[in-house]
Recover the amino acids of this structure.
């Protein structure tokens, strides 16, 4: 058996998501129902048409096992799986669903993600006293990425203002998005003056704690036209995951100015999609901007600009929603927050809607290929998915 | 073969609290000077590791046959601290470890026991560490007095610089200062009764050692006599017929009363000037008293040791970092804050002792890379070889590669951030360590740091020990300089020299 890859072998015919934010009045079940029903409606199918499901969830308190999804939408008896891969949990759930379709085992499946963070009202991500090695230091999530900021400041001369521009751009985009957690513009000055979380990262450099869910219905490209009569559906062009150490601070050669996992996932995805010049061929991207520094490094790791030049390109408007390579036209994690298991699927919903020309927020102009990128843990797990139009 | 001192070392925590700040807090009359206070992540065990490491500088720790730990403030009531200390100092496992607890004279008692074991031929070399971090009740005289420090002596029948000539002990049951297991603070004996008991025991034990050894007290070079206040040793010495200039400063003005460590601290500080054949008397006190007579064998070596030992130095950096009283009472949990805890395991703590306490790493025989912790497979993505590792001892110094000032610890926001430092160690290996004893804003890429042994959290209801890093504590001035006294705001005359 030869390796065939995933290109043009899976179609997305339904996409749905919840409003992201502080959903105090909703539980995991509510969020799953809201997103999944939205995706079923979009696909024009009944819940019971679904043959198998994968659900990305990171935290044990959101739910364990496939039972969380089965109970969530009350769909029993079929295979359902809980996928956990840090911040790439949702996109990995999608990857597994893709493989079921591409293998020919199933031809109508559900990929979704959900996270209910606000029940654990804490400062920053919950569970940090429960995770990891009992003794070895465990930096907070902003601290992990902040280490990269410190190193980039040192090597490239980047500044806190360079970081602030990411927040300003993404808040400007998110303002237009009805599903976003935050819909307020921010100024460079506001971002710079915010309280420190992991110095040099302040409050506006960090994405928020939010609740949310997103879902996609997948089938084969052969069956897709029978569900989507006008032919306006999208297909998967590439899907790659790359995993490096959970503890990069013990790797003597790790540079902290770029992330190996993203680079490798991008290399694999571009190869699969046949992309040779991402700056020209990728119409827009939803990248993992868990922290402002992350987006700058992502843009370089994904090949959207030269090494060390992301702040300059950002300043020049390259990554604006109407720029050369729009980055996070939705507003990104900065505006949606980061319900961890949901985020990957939320990005894919956004890409799908953009490609179909029905974006709920800012619509990028005439997109052909859209890229979604997740980066989880301490730059540990990177997922890159490229979606495009059917052949 | 008579036992003697081979080496010594000490540890003084970085922070000093001014007594005038304590006075201000309680509207008390002020007394001069400062006291040394351990940081929130220190206890008598971690300070003992620091003093032990100082004492063993340039000495192979595998030659040591026993570790005796003396303290009234062991972090454990059941379980030895000495076993953890021995592991953190990367010592052998065929070792005798004993904790001498519950008495202020534990240090001198440990020294007597070690001397007798060595002279009986049962051991060759024993490391003795006296360390104390006594908790005084706020707004009492004890709060002015109690200071935190650790001092170590290496005792052996070989390579001695001082000889232990003789010793005597006596016991007397008296409720002097005491503390039951359930008490937070040391309790104080009524009025001046304890002073009388001290005078009684000390004078009797000094008479006894003079009678037993035949030493002429009028010709003693130094007398290191325990005192609960700065004037006590001079009074006791005078009463015993010891020349006033022979009575050594107990460092009360700068360190406070360092409890079990006090007599050793006094001795170490006094070794700046020594004469060949000089006779030195140590007197420890607590429910009785111990007297130990020593003789200098090699004055040059005794003094030389001091140059290479860093722990007793309070350098200029320390002086700048004099802490305020409010911080100190927070360290001592007087505000009853919930201690930081993580999910932990007694089992994994033991299994991983080689890299948690001994600070060992591995070297990959396939690619040569030194790495931490002790992986089975090489962490370098270009290599990834499995089971090609050899265990290596990592150097405890290095340079910061990158860092972050983290305001979050276990989901709690902390106003003072924790510097988390990625460090390239001298001799290879990269590690992530939290920084302590520092001004976070001053931490920069490229900064030289060294490891220090600390309590990192209280998960599992036991102290979880590991290393942190700190800015290198260089001694001030040149190599020949014996250090500078800190500017603590107290009159310069009150400062002991060389501390």
């Amino acid at each position: 058996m030869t390796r065939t890859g995933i290109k043009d072998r899976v179609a997305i015919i339904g996409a749905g998501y919840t409003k992201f934010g502080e959903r105090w009045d909703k539980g995991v079940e509510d969020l799953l129902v809201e997103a999944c029903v939205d995706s079923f409606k979009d696909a024009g199918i009944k819940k019971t048409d679904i043959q198998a499901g994968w659900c990305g969830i990171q935290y044990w308190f959101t739910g364990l096992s496939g039972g969380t999804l089965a109970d969530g939408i009350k769909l029993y008896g079929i295979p359902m799986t809980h996928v956990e891969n840090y911040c790439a949990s949702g996109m990995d759930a999608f990857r597994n669903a893709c493989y079921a379709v591409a293998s020919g085992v199933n031809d109508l499946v559900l990929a979704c993600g959900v996270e209910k963070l606000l029940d654990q009202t804490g400062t920053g991500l919950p569970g940090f006293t429960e995770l990891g090695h009992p003794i070895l230091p465990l930096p907070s999530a902003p601290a992990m990425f902040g280490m990269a900021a410190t190193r980039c400041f040192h090597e490239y001369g980047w500044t806190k203002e360079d970081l602030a521009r990411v927040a300003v751009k993404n808040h400007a985009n998110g303002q237009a998005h009805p599903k976003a957690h935050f819909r307020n513009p921010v100024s460079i000055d506001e971002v710079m003056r915010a309280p420190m979380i992991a110095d040099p990262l302040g409050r506006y450099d960090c994405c928020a704690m939010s609740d949310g869910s997103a879902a996609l219905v997948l089938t084969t490209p052969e069956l897709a036209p029978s569900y989507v009569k006008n032919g306006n559906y999208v297909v998967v062009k590439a899907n790659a995951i790359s995993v490096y150490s959970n503890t990069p601070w013990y790797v003597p050669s790790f540079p902290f100015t770029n992330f190996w996992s993203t680079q490798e996932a991008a290399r694999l995805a571009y190869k699969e999609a046949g992309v040779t010049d991402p700056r020209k061929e990728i119409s827009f991207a939803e990248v993992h901007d868990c922290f402002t520094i992350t987006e700058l490094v992502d843009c370089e790791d994904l090949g959207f600009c030269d090494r060390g030049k992301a702040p300059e390109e950002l300043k020049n408007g390259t990554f604006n929603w109407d720029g050369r390579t729009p980055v996070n036209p939705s507003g990104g994690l900065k505006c949606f927050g980061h319900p961890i298991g949901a985020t990957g699927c939320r990005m894919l919903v956004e890409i799908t809607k953009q490609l179909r020309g029905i974006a709920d927020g800012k619509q990028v102009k005439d997109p052909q290929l859209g890229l979604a990128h997740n980066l989880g843990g301490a730059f540990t797990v990177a997922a890159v998915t490229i979606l495009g139009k059917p052949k | 073969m008579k036992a003697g001192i081979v080496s010594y070392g000490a540890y003084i925590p970085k922070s000093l609290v001014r007594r005038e700040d304590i006075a201000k807090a309680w509207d008390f009359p002020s007394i001069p000077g400062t006291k040394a206070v351990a940081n929130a992540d220190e206890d008598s065990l971690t300070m003992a590791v620091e003093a032990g490491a100082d004492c063993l500088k340039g000495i192979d720790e595998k030659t040591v046959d026993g570790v005796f730990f003396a303290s009234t403030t062991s972090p454990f009531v059941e379980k030895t601290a000495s076993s953890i200390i021995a592991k953190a100092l990367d010592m052998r496992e065929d070792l005798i470890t004993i904790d001498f607890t519950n008495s202020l004279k534990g240090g001198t008692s440990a020294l007597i026991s070690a001397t007798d074991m060595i002279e009986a031929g049962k051991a060759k070399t024993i490391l003795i560490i006296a360390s104390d971090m006594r908790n005084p009740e706020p707004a009492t005289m004890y709060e002015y007095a109690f200071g935190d420090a650790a001092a170590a002596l290496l005792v052996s029948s070989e390579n001695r610089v001082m000889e232990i000539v003789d010793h005597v002990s006596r016991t007397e049951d008296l409720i002097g200062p005491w503390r039951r297991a359930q008490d937070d603070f040391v309790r104080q004996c009524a009025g001046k009764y304890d002073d009388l008991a001290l005078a009684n025991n000390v004078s009797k034990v000094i008479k006894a050692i003079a009678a037993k050894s035949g030493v002429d007290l009028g010709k003693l070079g130094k007398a290191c006599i325990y005192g609960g206040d700065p004037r006590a040793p001079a009074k006791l010495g005078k009463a015993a017929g010891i020349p006033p200039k022979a009575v050594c400063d107990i460092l009360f003005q700068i360190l406070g009363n360092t409890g079990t460590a006090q007599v050793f601290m006094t001795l170490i500080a006094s070794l700046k000037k020594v004469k060949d054949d000089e006779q030195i008397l140590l007197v420890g006190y607590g429910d009785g008293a111990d007297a130990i007579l020593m003789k200098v064998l090699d004055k040059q070596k005794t003094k030389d040791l001091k140059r290479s030992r860093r722990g007793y130095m309070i350098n200029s950096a320390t002086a700048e970092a004099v802490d305020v009283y409010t911080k100190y009472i927070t360290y001592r949990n007087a505000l009853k804050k919930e201690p930081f805890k993580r999910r932990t395991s007694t089992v994994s703590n033991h299994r991983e002792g080689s890299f948690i306490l001994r600070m060992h790493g591995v070297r990959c025989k396939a690619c040569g890379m030194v790495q931490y912790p002790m992986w089975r497979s090489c962490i370098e993505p270009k290599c990834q070889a499995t089971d090609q590792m050899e265990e290596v001892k990592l150097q405890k110094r290095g340079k910061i590669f990158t860092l972050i000032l983290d305001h979050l610890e276990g989901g709690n926001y902390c106003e003072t951030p924790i510097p988390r430092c990625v460090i390239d160690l001298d001799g290879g290996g990269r590690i992530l360590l939290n920084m302590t004893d520092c001004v976070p804003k001053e931490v920069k890429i490229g900064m030289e740091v060294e490891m220090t042994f600390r309590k990192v959290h209280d998960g599992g209801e036991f102290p979880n020990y590991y290393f942190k890093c700190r800015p290198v504590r260089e001694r001030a001035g040149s190599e020949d300089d014996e250090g500078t006294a800190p500017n603590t705001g107290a009159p310069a005359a009150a400062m002991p020299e060389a501390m």
